[in-house]
Amino acid sequence: MSYTTQMDAARKGILTKEMKAVAEKENFDPQELMRLVAEGKVAIPANKRHTCLEPNGIGSMLKTKINVNLGTSRDCSDLDMELKKVNDAVAMGAESIMDLSSFGDTGKFRRKLTSECPAIIGTVPIYDAVVYYHKPLKEITSREWIDIVKMHAEDGVDFMTIHIGINKNTADRFKEAKRLTNIVSRGGSIIFAWMEMTGLENPFFEHFDEILEICQEYDITLSLGDACRPGCIADASDISQIEELITLGELTQKAWNKNVQVIIEGPGHMPLDQIAANMKIQQTLCKGAPFYVLGPLVTDIAPGYDHITAAIGGAIAAASGASFLCYVTPAEHLRLPDLDDVKEGIIASRIAAHAADIAKGIRGASDWDQKMSEARKRLDWEKMFDLSIDPEKARRYRATGKPEKEDTCSMCGNFCAVKNMNRILEGEIVSIYDE
């Protein structure tokens, strides 16, 4: 039997090689996974032209996945440096790379990613259109916006963020509602400005059926972008955010009717006490489609530390149903992240994802922690390093504070509770002071 997309295959009872790979990786029943893909509750982004892809599934019943945003800008256009970040991100466990390049030979970089990188590759065509056509925003035509989507599909990207929820209707409501930080989504602000200047409907919304045909042809997963995500906690859960989410829910069903996989993008900045409720609202309005969140950042006051504010929100969001975390680095709101920023952002997001997976009871998630605890009980330092989420940093920290005795650390020394409990329970004498 032939099929167009992973969803189409699942609905026809075809267990694709991508489904088999995901089921094995997740220790998940293949038939159950196929059912979830058929229902849209799990997405497996896998463009037919991305032949080096190592597939991953995205859904709240699976391990929480991490996306890393990279790409060139006018001020930082070193493609080799961005490729170094890509390789480091994959080595550190990121399942997805999103190319947000907005300067230089973006096509060359994108095609290099899809020909060499095993991670899921995502893009935002609206950024690339501005670079590709190299003309004033107002002069880009509706046809040209859609042609960029086709071009990215042909280049092999697995998912695309399409800012489709900000149509004429939601844009009018946004202007009426007033916000503290307006639209902070880069793509959302671009399409809003284009609509205001031309008076035309959002071309992605107007030509959604054509976009779905492109997605069917190449098996593209649509990431329905949140143009109205809150950019500060004061704007969280406002009418613009929720109304756009309602629109995205309607478009999700339309995509599913054509067997196109969908991911829903979400906030943004959001107070702790609103996160769980927002996850429930999304699950309800979008019928369980995978939720992809940027953070959420739980406070606005921590530039330089927003990988921490995002990890706090990300852990709560994923524990409450989000399935895909977009990393946030210490450079957020300040500059393009460097290699160290990328590492810090990935580690923070992976910690958040793993903590959420434990809370959700994801199969095997707590096994890692069990092994670490057993190594700590034995004071087996080498095993602890091997099990660390960042072994290099763990080794470096111990090496820079060498203890007098190898079976302790320089914090506690002979006062080490683990060492002393092991000894006393084995019937030994514990002196501590004169040892």
From TrEMBL:
[4Fe-4S] cluster binds at C409, C412, C416. It holds the Pfam family ThiC_Rad_SAM. GO terms for molecular function: 4 iron, 4 sulfur cluster binding; phosphomethylpyrimidine synthase activity; zinc ion binding. Its cofactor is [4Fe-4S] cluster. Its EC number is 4.1.99.17. The keyword Secreted does not apply. Belongs to the ThiC family. Catalyzes the synthesis of the hydroxymethylpyrimidine phosphate (HMP-P) moiety of thiamine from aminoimidazole ribotide (AIR) in a radical S-adenosyl-L-methionine (SAM)-dependent reaction. This is Phosphomethylpyrimidine synthase. It comes from Clostridium symbiosum (strain WAL-14163). The lineage of its organism: Bacteria, Bacillati, Bacillota, Clostridia, Lachnospirales. The gene is thiC.
